[in-house]
Design a protein that fits this description.
The chain contains seven helices and eleven strands. The strands form two sheets. Strands 1, 4, 5, 6, 7, 8, 9, 10 and 11 form a nine-stranded mixed beta sheet that branches. A two-stranded antiparallel ribbon has the order 2-3. α4 links the parallel β6 and β7. The protein is globular. The structure holds 2-acetamido-2-deoxy-beta-D-glucopyranose (3 copies).
């Protein structure tokens, strides 16, 4: 193949290769650059089997073709219908506060700064919900703004079971209050459909969302993400939405 190639093109190619390897070396030197960090996808696939809060039957059919090549259309095109709290998703302040809903605190008002940046993945004790004592025992230092809590929910593979499990692990209201009072955490991520334990659903959400500074990310998959230092979470910029599915990744 090289035999037929014009000498100038070959030279250009060699230069390009040289530049490329130089930039890869430079990237490695600063531990940053062209795809160095391993990316963990911490977003669940949206499938009809996904569990839905308080439902036995899960998500079910949610997408359908409205025009298709098979039927003579130029292209395939589908429509989907999803609850705003489907799968891996964020909560807006308007989710639990009527006042905030009326004032327009929807998902478009959530801070991208909070949704993206250095994060800790923290394992919580498997034998209880997240109480004030549990939060205290985790010793999360001041200055940590984003924490993804991995719980028994991950071990139980709850997000992979269609039937909703109300006995999932989540924050008890005193645990949420302890976090608000004693840490700098502004992004709270958890591995089931709600950050709040079932029995404290309303009070825990109210405590977290009251200041409008804390962003809740629910339904994460944290199975493989043992390490990870940067989280990126991007919900759709959907006006009036009290929640929204988001694509979340963790970069090691
Ligand atoms: C394609 O055509 C068939 C037969 O008319 C109809 O039943 C089906 O719903 C159509 N599907 C789409 C995606 O248009
Ligand atoms: C397009 O739609 C047809 C059904 O009309 C389906 O069989 C096919 O897989 C679709 N193609 C793509 C690329 O989605
Ligand atoms: C957490 O709380 C739920 C009720 O919201 C309860 O069913 C469950 O057993 C608790 N989990 C643990 C590990 O104690």
């Amino acid at each position: 193949m090289f035999r037929n190639m014009n000498k100038n093109i070959l030279l250009l190619l060699l230069c390009a290769c040289g530049l490329l390897s130089l930039s890869i070396l430079a990237g490695a030197a600063v531990g940053y650059g062209a795809g160095n960090g391993k990316i963990f996808d911490i977003t669940h696939k949206i499938t009809s089997e996904l569990p839905i809060f308080n439902s036995k039957n899960g998500l079910g059919h949610f997408i359908r073709l409205v025009s298709s090549i098979k039927n003579g259309s130029l292209a395939n095109e589908s429509e989907f219908k999803l609850g705003t709290h489907t799968g891996t998703h964020v909560d807006a302040p308007g989710h639990f506060f009527q006042k905030y809903y009326e004032e327009g605190f929807d998902v478009t008002t959530l801070s991208l700064q909070t949704l993206n940046g250095p994060a800790l993945v923290v394992d919580v004790p498997r034998n209880q919900n997240i109480t004030a004592e549990v939060m205290k025992s985790l010793n999360i230092p001041r200055g940590v703004h984003r924490v993804l809590f991995r719980t028994l929910n991950t071990d139980r593979r709850l997000m992979h079971k269609t039937k909703f499990a109300s006995d999932f692990t989540g924050f008890k209201k005193e645990g949420a209050q302890w976090l608000v009072d004693n840490t700098d955490i502004k992004l709270v991520g958890l591995d089931y459909l709600s950050v709040a334990a079932y029995v404290d659903a309303a009070p825990t959400h109210l405590i977290f969302l009251r200041s409008r500074e804390i962003v809740l990310v629910e339904g994460l998959t944290l199975m493989e993400s043992r390490q990870g230092s940067m989280v990126h979470c991007l919900p759709l910029r959907m006006v009036d939405a009290d929640g929204c599915p988001a694509r979340c990744i963790l970069i090691a």
